[in-house]
Amino acid sequence: MPDLESLRLLVLVGELGSLGRAAGELGITQPAASKRLSALERQLRLVLVDRTRRGSRLTPAGHVVSDWARRVLDEVDGLLTGAAALRAHRDAELRVAASMTVAEHLAPGWIGELRRAEPALYVGLQVTNSTSVVELVRSGEVDMGFIESPSIPTDLAYRRVAVDRLAVVVAPTHPWTRRRRPVSPEELAATPLVVRESGSGTRETLERALAAARCGPAQPLLELGSTTAVRSAVIAGAGPAVLSVLAVATDLSEGRLVEVGVEGIDLRRALCAVWPSGRRLVGPAAALLAIAGRAGP
């Protein structure tokens, strides 16, 4: 596998138009940078950089790989930000709980922006389902929470920070990929699905949407405790699932999953920040709320 520093070097060559300047940015010598790029080209079996006396420029293949590399580096930065927040939980200055979808796809970016503005701030993040987030906020174990549940308890204050959509997804070999008409609410309710556990905001959103369409509850084929587990089961061919488009965007674009059209059912939902009613958010909590409201999809 290519190492991250080689990918970072490639991105910098594309941005700066110079191998020497890219090497200086990383604090290495130009010969070392050239050797690293050559090793990356051998690994990928592609020519990524045109080296001339006038400088170094990315080849067409280099531009494509550089774009992919930038996405990988952004995901790694999000991972490191999220991991740092989890480590800091016990002695955090700002204690936050977030549901699975928010924690995996949105919260790392929000927390990263907050920490860039306040480098000395420690943020502790607990990741759980929406029902547990509510209980953590109520008990005072966290200062604020982010949930994906369609119902907000009356004893909590809340603000919508983003809108999400659930999608019916299947493996590419599933018969539903050959359908010419959308799946109806009745068919969805009658089909065994791979689902999240009770208490999950995704599960509650689906159940409420089916009830609004005057259908019975979803029929669980498998009940799993995380979005990642549900995704993996669907990719392996276990059956259909209803998941956030945030969680399956990459799988859809790369062909591991296929979205199936539905009609007669509203699978949109609000992602909300919650905190104890009657309490005004101040300091880092208020700043995080503002960032989430600006950045949410």
From TrEMBL:
Keywords: DNA-binding, Transcription, Transcription regulation
Sequence ranges assigned to domain HTH lysR-type in this UniProt record: 2-59
Domain of life according to the entry: Bacteria
PROSITE patterns: HTH_LYSR
Family: Belongs to the LysR transcriptional regulatory family.
Protein name: DNA-binding transcriptional regulator, LysR family
GO MF annotation terms: DNA binding
